[in-house]
Structure formats: structure tokens, C-alpha cells
Design a protein that fits this description.
- The protein is of the alpha+beta class.
- The protein folds into 3 domains: 146 residues, 2-Layer Sandwich (BirA Bifunctional Protein, domain 2); 128 residues, YbaK/aminoacyl-tRNA synthetase-associated domain (YbaK protein, Alpha-Beta Complex); 124 residues, Rossmann fold.
- Helices cover 24% and strands 29% of the residues.
- The protein has 10 helices and 24 strands.
- Strands 1, 2, 3, 4, 5, 14 and 17 form a 7-stranded antiparallel sheet that branches.
- A hairpin with a 2-residue loop joins strand 18 and strand 19.
- The longest helix has 21 residues.
- The chain is elongated, with a radius of gyration of 30 Å.
């Protein structure tokens, strides 16, 4: 396309969805792996810094899913990742942490007036938050009282909690009072009869806990597992966070934020069974299809590209996804400059480059600012003074570098750059060759 400046057709933002139907799990796995590779290739070609991460399938269902997260400080999701390649959304990642032990001889009840949070408790006792134990109370789907315990420096992952308890909803203040529980002072010693206790696996290695005493204004130190209380179930309950242990290699995890640009799911037979979508297998038996689901958020991908490829001047599109590759900017519209600029447009378009020309009756400063804002990868600036010297100026949007190029060699250089583009899938550094010394 070679539209005049300002006449580019808007690109419609859409969601790309796909589903696959299989007779065997092996067939689903093969397609799932192919689609995962394809989605990774899309991210690569868009020039994204991304991570494929373990994720929670949410309401869609299925036990196996991977999100493709573009790293960005403005991202809506938190994730952890490791140099070994492991990455996970904090909602789904396995939490392996090491609480610190506060040693105390025997069970001791301590008055803690006006202490209701872990932060306040740790400060009151002059110990790290990792030496305390946090308690949260809720109800399972069948109405049973469930009290969960996690290391004090971690948060309860409600998705994990719901799986562990068969549904989990935090109690309101009124419900806690009805059960005889004290907000900010809960602990495993002396819980109401019938309470079901689930604790994070990391606490299993801690012989004595610093916890609430189930009495307002009091906490226990040295509450011994097995002597003073018991745990009904151990589970991974905590939200993983930076500094926790990588489950793959054991190194500390790093944290980041990301924008989810795509996701793949193994749905199994959740929908096919409920909707009667079946096939006849080779033995003549009717079976539900095994399904996969795959989605790319086009608008999210564009947003992620802009987040990663922008600066104070505007967008710096990778060439592979730019609305046009080159913007030719004539600095005036007189008889010498404009015809040369239009000739350059035709020559570059013949190289299969997408070109726009800013032939508006505007000052050069306005044109430069708009070109930076829109983010064409390369600006070709045609001015009267340069033409008198047989040169034009080129500017690489991504780095801001500028260089004078002989007009006679421009097409040859751009042809070489175009060949480089075909070898560079992302197209991010395509025009760098013009600035090589």
C-alpha cells in the first residue's frame, strides 16, 4: 500500500479463536504443542519480550494451559520466572518457600494489644514476617468451616484454596463472630469444634509456630505441631512471589508484570460431554471429542507492542507490524523537493516496501513530531539544502540515529535492507544496515 499521509486504513482489532477436536489425548497434545509453537512465533515476529507461563484455566476449564505474557510494567498480571526457562502466573505457580523458625521453649501466650496484622505482630515481637503464620477463615461449598494457614510473608492464593477445600469463600466479619473467631488473632490452637484445618506445605517443616491465640489481643509463640494442634490437610496454598524457589532448578525466582497476549488450553471433554458432541471410534463406540482451545488477543498484542516499543516521542514499531515501513518527509513543497520525494516513494515501493509521504503544508517540526509519534520505522527526509549536496537524511525511529545518504545510492542501500528484512523474522533491526560505519 502507498497511501498519502493520513489516509491509512484503520486496522480492526479482533480476537482470534480456534478449537480442535480429537479422538485421543496424544492427538490433542500434538496440536497443543504445534499451536504453542505458533503462538511463540507470533510473539517473536512481533518483536515482543515475552514468557510462556504456567497459568490457571479459570472458568474455561481444563487442567493444562499456557499463557503467553509480554513483559511490561503496566501489565495486568504478575508472574515469576527463572533463568532456567521456568515461568508462571502468580495465580498458578507452585510456591516453594522457606519460613524462618522463631525458637521458643514450650507454648507461650503473649499479650499483643492493638496487634491485628502480620506486619504489626512481626514488629511487636521484633521478628521477620517469615517467622509468623497467617490464618484465614472461610467456608467450603458444603458450608463447613475451613481455616487455612500460610507463611506470614505470603498471601493466600484463593484459587488454590478453593481447590484444596472443595470451594472456599472467605468469611465476613459477622460470620467470623458467629463462629467465635477473632479477626487478627486466629490460630490453630483452640479452634471451634468441627473446624477443618488446611496448612501450606511449607509450614510442615516448621515445628513451632507464631500464631494467633484465638483470643482478641493475644498470640502464641512456640505452638508445636502435633503437640498443641493438628493439621487435617497439607496443600500448596500460597501465592508465589519473587525470591521463592524455582520448582525446576531451585534458584530464586524473579518477578515481573505482563500483558496476556494469547493462551492455549487443553479442555478435555468438559464441553463435548455436556453438549453431546461425540464421534464413533474405530471399535464402534460413541465417545465425546477431546477438545483444545486457542486464542490470540489482537488488540492486546498491539497494546503490548506499543508498551515495549515506545518512548517519550511516541511509538517505534518493529518493521514486521508497522502500519508502513518508511515515511518520506519533504521539508518543502517547491519544484525541487516534492518531485524528488515522490520519486523516492515510487522507487521504495518498487522494492516491496510500504511507504507513506507527508506532503502536508506543515512546518518541518510538526512533521518530525508526528512521524515520531506514529512510529514509522524509518524516516527519509528530503530537503533543499541536502539535495544541493546530493544527499538526503535518514532517521532510524527505534534509536533516533540520523545519517546523510547519497541520493544516488539510497535505492541500492534500501534494497539490501529489504533483503535483510526477509532473513530477520521480527524485522526489528532491518534498517540498521543504513547506519553501519
Amino acid at each position: 500500500i502507498r497511501p498519502r499521509f493520513g489516509l491509512l486504513r484503520s486496522r480492526e482489532f479482533i480476537m482470534k479463536d480456534a478449537y480442535s477436536f480429537h479422538a485421543t489425548q496424544e492427538s490433542l497434545q500434538e496440536t497443543y504443542d504445534d499451536m504453542s509453537r505458533a503462538y511463540g512465533n507470533i510473539c517473536d515476529r512481533c518483536g515482543l519480550d515475552y514468557r510462556p507461563v504456567e497459568a490457571d484455566s479459570g472458568q474455561i476449564g481444563g487442567k493444562v494451559t499456557t499463557e503467553f505474557m509480554a513483559l511490561a510494567p503496566a501489565g495486568e498480571a504478575e508472574l515469576v520466572h527463572c533463568s532456567c526457562g521456568y515461568a508462571a502466573n502468580t495465580e498458578a505457580g507452585e510456591c516453594i518457600c522457606h519460613p524462618t523458625l522463631y525458637k521458643n521453649e514450650g507454648l507461650e501466650k503473649i499479650a499483643t494489644p492493638n496487634v491485628h496484622t502480620i506486619e504489626e505482630l512481626a514488629e511487636f515481637l521484633s521478628i521477620p514476617e517469615s517467622s509468623t503464620v497467617k490464618a484465614l477463615s472461610g467456608k467450603s461449598d458444603d458450608g463447613r468451616l475451613v481455616v487455612m494457614f500460610v507463611p506470614g510473608d505470603h498471601e493466600l492464593n484463593e484459587i488454590k484454596a478453593s481447590r484444596a477445600a472443595g470451594g472456599f469463600t472467605l468469611l465476613t466479619d459477622e460470620e467470623m463472630e458467629a463462629f467465635g473467631l477473632h479477626k487478627g488473632s486466629m490460630g490453630p490452637v483452640g479452634l471451634p469444634e468441627g473446624a477443618y484445618v488446611i496448612a501450606d506445605r511449607a509450614l510442615e517443616a516448621v515445628p513451632a509456630w507464631v500464631v494467633g491465640a484465638n483470643e482478641d489481643g493475644y498470640h502464641y509463640v512456640g505452638a508445636a505441631l502435633g503437640r498443641d494442634f493438628t493439621v487435617d490437610q497439607w496443600a500448596d496454598l500460597s501465592v508465589v512471589k519473587p525470591g521463592d524457589v524455582c520448582p525446576t532448578c531451585g534458584l530464586p525466582l524473579q518477578g515481573a508484570r505482563g500483558i496476556e497476549v494469547s493462551q492455549v488450553f487443553q479442555l478435555g471433554t468438559k464441553y463435548s460431554s455436556s453438549m453431546g458432541a461425540t464421534f464413533m471410534d474405530e471399535d464402534g463406540k460413541e465417545k465425546p471429542f477431546i477438545m483444545g482451545c486457542y486464542g490470540v488477543g489482537v488488540s492486546r498484542t498491539v497494546a503490548a507492542i506499543v508498551e515495549q516499543h515506545s518512548d517519550e516521542g511516541g511509538i517505534a514499531w518493529p518493521m514486521s507490524v508497522a502500519p508502513a515501513h518508511v515515511c518520506v518527509i519533504p521539508l518543502s513543497l517547491d519544484d525541487a523537493v516534492l518531485p524528488t520525494a515522490e520519486k523516492i516513494v515510487s522507487q521504495l515501493a518498487a522494492l516491496d516496501l510500504e511507504v507513506v509521504i507527508d506532503d502536508r503544508k506543515e512546518r518541518p517540526g510538526v512533521k518530525f513530531a508526528d512521524a515520531d509519534l506514529i512510529g514509522w520505522p524509518l524516516q527519509v527526509i528530503v530537503g533543499k539544502r541536502g539535495l544541493e549536496n546530493g544527499t538526503i537524511e535518514v532517521k532510524l525511529r527505534r534509536t533516533g540515529e540520523k545519517r546523510d545518504v547519497p541520493l544516488s545510492t539510497l535505492v541500492e542501500l534500501m534494497s539490501f535492507a529489504r533483503r535483510q528484512a526477509k532473513a530477520n523474522k521480527s524485522g526489528v533491526g532491518t534498517f540498521d544496515v543504513l547506519f553501519a560505519s
